[in-house]
Amino acid sequence: MMKADPMFSADPSYGAKPSQQALGNGKVMTIVHTNGVHHLPVYPCMCEKKIDIDIQLLHSRLYPASSKDPSTAFTFEALKFFHLIKVQTHLSTENYSTLLRRLTNFIFPDETPDRQRELGRVWQQWNHLINLKRYGFGHTNRDRKPGKGDLALFCAACPQPNENLPDNWKDDPDSWKYRRYLVADGNFVLNHLRSHGLNKDKTVFLADGAGYMTQKARPGAGVTSAEIIESLWSQLNGAANITRTMTVSHRQEMLDACIADINWRKLQGLVPFLIRQLKKAEEERDEAQASFEGVDEAVTPEQRDRWREQMTTANSRRAADPTSMDVYNISVKKVEPKKDVQARLMAQEQANNAQLGVTRWVAQAIELQEHQIQLADLISCHKRSPTPSQSVEIQKKREFILKKLNSIMSEGEVLFPQAKLEEMSGRAPILREICLCNDTCTCADEIAVTSNPRPKPSDVEHSLLPLPSCLDTRPIGWSHIIDVEEELRVGQANEALEALRVEIAHKSYLYRANRGAASTGKKAKTRSYNAIGKVDRGIRNHVKSTLCSKKSNPSTQRQ
Fold first, then answer.
1. Long-range contacts of range 406-414, CB-CB < 8 Å, 24 or more positions apart?
2. Residue 65 domain-assigned?
3. What's the structural domain count of the chain?
4. What are the pLDDT digits (tens) for 111-165?
5. Host domain of residue 97
6. Among residues 134, 157, 179, which one ends one of the domains?
7. Where is each CxC2-like cysteine cluster KDZ transposase-associated domain found (predicted)?
8. Of the residues 134, 169, 192, which one is the last residue of a structural domain?
């Protein structure tokens, strides 16, 4: 079909359109290959029983840009390479076309013909034809249109009758082995701009709903048989920039191609992955069994029977009533938060039209004490050699506490003019750092133990607060203030205990996820250990808040 010609053997035009459009009986065509854009004469068959020119080009592994009198063609190698680049690196058609033009003429790439539009259209056709061929619609099912999911890759790991399950699989007592788990998730990075204009409803769907994307009639996007979930979104997010402004049909085909490539790579590595997972499961089986037996031995037969009944009920009703699965959630009695206690006490004051502002004043003082605890913890963390930015952060927090303290003292003088708060004596709670180790202490180098019983006056984190629990002698008539602080302290303790439960659960999770740091006990400055240390500091702060509430106990000293 094609004949070499001395005038075109070295392509002296460097991609630029030659002056002559024909050479003898041959037509000079633009040929796009992996190494650039070329112009070569093409001599079609002129026999009596000749086939159409576009089919002749396909027989020569050239894909024509049009079916009638084509002047541009893409080599199969160029389309294969472009498809691989597109699904692996999510390179746009524009960038790939620009790359080919620069490869053709590095100095003057604009002199090279731009075939971006043709390349985009040809890739859509190429991708569709390759899918039809791969999934059996190119020879055995030529007259049948692909149905829902017919162009999706078979998942060898999913249990499917008549495919990868034994004939008597329904009689197997271990039926859990054949369960199929379907996961629903949404990728909000792959958003799509709504198209406007005359052509917004004229897009052509070559395989609507036959791959991994839903049909155009159904809003949103989905994945059949859970071929991909959130763990693979990171591989697909790169396509967001190039698919955001595509037509709906082109976007669907692009995402289908990317997901198919991801699933193909997943299928290639499925056997070694399952082998690794089997070894991991065998290693963790004994540990899981020991953990279960430890929990099972600690419960009574009545609890075990009740839990089994709750599990059976929840599993049988979950399809019709999803709330039945709430039985698996942690059942913790909700406590009254400190803010709710404050709101209730303030409402009582307003209803009685007496002692207005006392509850708010006491709540501000308790909140300021929590800021003091947090500042003391921050100072202990940077005690050895704080950086300039850390020193500035400490001074900012000290300034904040000092302003709040001055405001509380000024408002207290208005509320209690006879109390003389400035002359009151007392002691701020000196809270030693708490060791959180179970057996052998390994945190001595990390926690700062407070040994000075009388902090310097400049240390605002240890300043005396005008709370009944902090004063040596309480003014006459402060019985109501003592009651208010006691109720607020109960709310504070409840919140601290609730936060402790969450932090301890978080710490347990971190130790399980980072067993190296948990078992070796080394103080390597790794990310996992820093995360555990951060949780430890939070636990210490909540313990200090609880101790403040416990030490207050203002109801024992009334006047």
1. 407/364, 408/361, 408/364, 408/365, 408/368, 408/465, 408/466, 409/466, 411/357, 411/361, 412/361, 412/466
2. yes
3. 2
4. 889 999 999 999 989 988 888 888 888 776 667 778 777 888 878 888 888 888 8
5. 6-134
6. 134
7. 25-105
8. 134
